[in-house]
Structure formats: C-alpha cells, structure tokens
Specification:
This protein is an alpha+beta fold. The protein has three helices and three strands.
Length: about 80
C-alpha cells in the first residue's frame, strides 16, 4: 500500500504542480518508507529536521527521472 500511495502522490504532484522536483522527508527509523523512496527511484539528499520532526531522510526525484522510470501500472 505504501508504494501505491507514494506513486499516486508523485503522479499527482508532477501532473498538477509546476515543479521540476519532488521530495519526501521520512524519519530515519521508518525503514519501509525509506526503502519505497529508493525503490521508486528517489535519491537520498540529506538528513534534515523538517518542522518539529527531527532527523528525517530527505529523498528527491526530478520530473524527467519520474517520467522515465515510474512503475508501469501508474503510466497512463
């Protein structure tokens, strides 16, 4: 379910936002979500505090990379 949710969020973000890159910020101890980010082609950027949440792994993916590599089932 996590992979499908992040895939849908990335599809929505690139379809409806005028941005060239999207990021995720996931707590370091959330191994499942960090694995999903990598599985979907996101690149680790840094460890950062995001608002009140401390020590998050920040992953990013460009619009071009997502378009070229997104899962087949989400292509439409």
């Amino acid at each position: 379910l996590g992979t499908e949710a992040i895939t849908a969020a990335l599809d929505f973000g690139f379809a409806h936002l005028d941005v060239d890159e999207l990021i995720t910020a996931t707590h370091q101890e959330n191994a499942g979500m960090n694995m999903i980010a990598r599985k979907l082609g996101m690149t680790f950027r840094e460890i950062a505090d995001v608002g009140p949440w401390k020590a998050n792994n920040v992953h990013a993916i460009s619009r071009a990379s997502w378009a070229a590599n997104r899962p087949e089932e989400s292509k439409g």
